[in-house]
Amino acid sequence: MLEMRPDCERCGADLPADEGGAFICSFECTFCAACADALDERCPNCGGELLDRPARVGKALANNPASTERRFKG
């Protein structure tokens, strides 16, 4: 199950689990749309492809909450 990380690792922007706009690699490194675009959709950590992260909504989110651990190191 995806962690649904709460922020962009590059700029710190909030990325709520129940909204679109987040991009992830196969290791779940997470970036906002603007940063993913600036990175040419390539993860700077592993070189993997950045793809749209699916949203988690309703009961799925209530029963499986998103991570609260922020990754931005600013």
From TrEMBL:
Origin species: Sphingomonas leidyi
InterPro entries assigned: DUF1272
The protein's name: DUF1272 domain-containing protein
Pfam family, any one: DUF1272
